[in-house]
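Review form for a predicted model. The reviewer records the input and the model, then writes brief findings.
Reviewer: anonymous (R2)
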Amino acid sequence: MALADFIPSEGQRRIADAITAAERHTTGEICVHVTPSCRGNVYKRAVKKFNKLHLYTTKRRNAVLIFIAYEARKFAILGDTGINDVVPEGFWDQESEELGKYLKAGRPVDGLCEIIARIGDRLSEYFPGERDDENELSNEVTFDDGDEEDDD
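Model under review:
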């Protein structure tokens, strides 16, 4: 399945718009990355992608990555150290459970838009929006063809 079959261009626009809306209320940065495959541990692969995309470069270290390997039917949600240092353990569990339901139902765009809004609301509790906050990371969905090495 091609990326356009999983998230068509209109869906990618909806996701970018959802990120823009969610980030209006928080200094947090939300990113979505999609790849077809992940043979190894999805969390390790997401951490690797987080670093490769330089998501750790935000001023407050409060970036979030939603990583989806759609053909492998795996995903992970992870936050940078600025978030993980202040939120309770299991902070992403509810969002992960809800996103999983949407993905199983074949509704990835709806699920991502819903989860992005929820993440924005939750981040605003810890990282409220500021008048002069700049958008430090792109709101566009990033993707690759899955040919990168997997970690176990």
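Findings: The longest helix spans residues 108-126.
Further findings: The beta strands are 29-35, 63-69, 74-79, 142-143.
Recommendation: see findings above.
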